[in-house]
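Give me the fold.
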Amino acid sequence: MVPVPKLTPTDLVAALRNPLAFIADRWTPDPRTVRRAALAALVMSVVIVVTGGAVRLTGSGLGCPTWPECTDGSLTPTTALSYHSAIEFTNRMLTYVLCAAVGWAIIAARSQKPYRRSLTRLGWAQFWIVMSNAILGGVVVLVGLNPYTVAAHFLLATALITVAVLMWQRTREGDGEPGPLVGTAVRQLVWALVAVTLVLIAAGTVVTGAGPHPGDSGDVERIDVSWSGVAELHAVFAWIVVSLTFALWFFLKGVDAPRGPRDRVRDLFLILLGQGVIGYVQYFTHLPTLLVGLHMFGSCLVWIGVLRVLLSLRERAGVPAGAGLPAQPYEADAADADAVSASIAGPR
């Protein structure tokens, strides 16, 4: 067994003064550990969206009717409350699991040698987004599930996923200046894809705010529009995203682009097909809760897929020694790809 080093009073003072630096001085994680820590934060950012959707779909949004306590005078549900309280409280507790995953990513990035400030900043950005969204979640409860605050809550969760994807990708690259792998026309087309996807996601929050799942069985304010009309507009944007993706794949084939971008576009197209099937089935079956939950999960995958397409269009030099990266920076690492598929598929 490895003996546990004794801590001197000086060590304790240093640990209290700057715990991250204290850990970094005594631990150097393997680059794969850093990648896995970033992946864990990404997976948890998706899980928290899925469980948040479960809270709404089961009508448990006000299961804990106050915040930060569950009920007045109690941080946890009491026996007088229903199973809705347990569902809402469980979702709140998962925020701590998310914080732990983000914290692990920050510690691993801070301890990596050589030190990469860009990774640490992305980790801290996730932390502050989590804190902000936790407060916003409390506001959602205090204002009785106002649909506009619910939409903002989801959009901020989407921002968290964005930063988590960026950090996970950066653990697989160096810190050199990014160099384009494709021409300007392709990059412009991808940015158009990103913009339309954001509009698609925003339209989806309006469908949620106007639809038949308010998040609680009581009198909850709804967005005063026809949810079916907004859903049809949402579908229009979805078809635009699919069309842009289809055109992009043919464009990349035509210009003989590197394999990495073509593979990421193919993956996105397959995700979009699955999401489209779920979307149409849930629309014509009047939004059953299970399909709505799967659609929310699919929304996360679509956004991750779009971001991966965007990030595959450039490469960064200066890959850290020992990072164990493949020869082509944007060809998927098989182990990591399997980890993403298995881990993110868990909530289903």
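Strands lie at 178-180, 314-316.
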